[in-house]
Specification:
The complex is a heterodimer of chains A (about 110) and B (about 120). Chain A is mostly beta strands and about 110 residues long. Chain A is built from no helices and ten strands. Chain A is globular. Helix content of chain B is about 0%, strand content about 50%. Classes of the chains: A mainly beta (about 110), B mainly beta (about 120).
């Protein structure tokens, strides 16, 4: 199974800050790497697929980069609605594993 | 509008059974791989199972193999998860999610999720 790790596990930031979250896979995901945002009590919401493709309807302040085993989610200017937990996920091999999540809260 | 609506969750004793359903609408259900993902209280997301468009391929996470069965009825636009021999560690919100399969590989991303249904395993 491909193991996913994320760093940091949590961070505190202010509105307007640039935020970067890292995700690492234990082996190559062939860029089948997705990012989801989850607000409390809600279902996850797809932000980025294929490592760097912005899902339709997602604000352009979100971006993804990376390849192979190392990936990054960047929020260029944090907005109030962005305080949430973010998960990376590989969908290259079964089981489709998720990272442990990164909680972004208000400083 | 794409909708996925789960139902069937509830309180069940250890060793018991439960059948979850996911009603799909707003898209051609038979075109998509369908998945179940769960989230224990206060924990992260865990992929549980997936089923191919025609139901001929099914895969499970190791922790549920032999206890859970995923199935679908394309005529009813519905996905199911039969859960037997339930354990306390199966307590979670269970989400169904669809995966667009543009290239027939079964790989991709979950573009729509249901709202989830809570399963609590406790005596």
């Amino acid at each position: 199974d491909i193991q996913m790790t994320q760093s940091p596990s949590s961070l505190s930031a202010s509105v307007g800050d640039r935020v970067t979250i890292a995700c690492r896979a234990s082996q190559s995901t062939n860029n089948y790497l997705n990012w989801y945002q989850q607000r409390p009590g809600k279902a996850p919401n797809l932000l980025i697929y294929g490592a760097s493709n912005l899902q339709s309807g997602v604000p352009s302040r979100f971006s993804g980069s990376g390849s192979g085993t190392d990936f990054t989610l960047t929020i260029s200017s944090l907005q109030p609605e962005d305080f949430a937990t973010y998960y990376c996920q590989q969908s290259y091999t079964t089981p489709f594993t998720f990272g442990p999540g990164t909680k972004v809260d208000i400083k | 509008e794409v909708q996925l609506v789960e139902s069937g969750g509830g309180l069940v004793q250890p060793g018991g059974s439960l059948r979850l359903s996911c009603a799909a609408s707003g898209f051609t259900f038979s075109d998509y791989w369908m998945h179940w993902v769960r989230q224990a209280p206060g924990k992260g997301l865990e992929w549980v199972a997936k089923i191919k468009q025609d139901g001929t391929e099914k895969y499970y996470v190791d922790s549920v193999k032999g206890r859970f069965t995923i199935s679908r009825d394309n005529a009813k636009n519905s996905l199911y998860l039969q859960m037997n021999s339930l354990r306390a560690e199966d307590t979670a919100v269970y989400y169904c999610a669809r995966l667009p399969d543009f290239y027939g590989s079964g790989r991709g991303y979950f573009d729509y999720w249901g709202q989830g249904t809570l399963v609590t395993v406790s005596s």
